[in-house]
Write a structure and sequence with these properties.
Blueprint (H helix, E strand, L loop, with lengths): L1 H17 L6 E10 L12 E10 L5 E20 L2 E20 L10 E18 L9 E20 L2 E16 L2 E5 L2 E9 L1
Antiparallel strand pairs: 1-2, 1-9, 2-3, 3-4, 4-5, 5-6, 6-7, 7-8, 7-9
Length: 197
């Protein structure tokens, strides 16, 4: 136990002395709220949650990033089936890849709060499972790709060496072919919180 404690102290001290650079890797927990026209999106009271990993470059004013995200949602709502509203339980999974860039209005520096604005293209794999015997045209499950874009405002603040508290607020604009709707809205307002190094 003492040896492990000494190792952790040495690791943190080494990182503190050596680091002093903004984080390039971040891991976040994510919460998302859906938005869109009734029966053409998930209801607003059905929220999604998941995890996200971000890899970015070190440039102090502009950096590019790649982001991988997995979210899931479940609930109950009405879907439009051949003109009729049918109530069904559902389970939804989504895996996304984002590629984009961030701009820092004030040059990014270590050991101080940093704000940034970002934009990216999004590609996602979507899986939806439904549980109702009343559907006539809607299938019991769907798998489809979706594409869109996202705008982000983020915050990072290094608290010990290279380790940072990080957060993002994002608005996603994305559609897919789901439940026999050609432009089913997957638009979400997203909040995430995590750490970077």
């Amino acid at each position: 136990m003492k040896l492990a404690s000494v190792f952790i102290i040495i690791l943190l001290f080494t990182t503190y002395v050596r680091g002093q650079t903004p984080p390039t890797t971040k891991i976040h927990l994510v919460q998302e709220l859906f938005s869109g026209e009734k029966n053409k999106t998930f209801d607003q009271d059905n929220t999604a949650s998941g995890i996200m990993m971000i890899l970015s470059s070190k440039n102090p004013t502009f950096n590019y990033y790649t982001k991988g995200k997995f979210i899931t949602a479940s609930g109950n709502q009405e879907f439009l089936d051949d003109g009729n509203e049918v109530d069904s339980d559902f389970t939804y999974y989504k895996s996304s890849l984002e590629v984009g860039g961030n701009i820092y209005p004030i040059s990014r520096k270590a050991k101080q709060p940093n704000l940034y604005l970002g934009v990216a293209g999004v590609m996602s794999y979507n899986y939806l499972a439904l549980d109702s015997d009343e559907f006539t045209k809607i299938k019991s499950s769907y798998q489809t790709m979706s594409f869109g874009y996202v705008g982000t405002m983020g915050f990072e603040w290094q608290v010990l060496g290279r380790y940072a508290i990080t957060a993002e607020i994002s608005q996603y604009f994305e559609t897919a072919d789901l439940v026999e709707v050609s432009n089913f809205s997957l638009n979400t307002f997203s909040f995430s919180l995590g750490m970077g190094w």
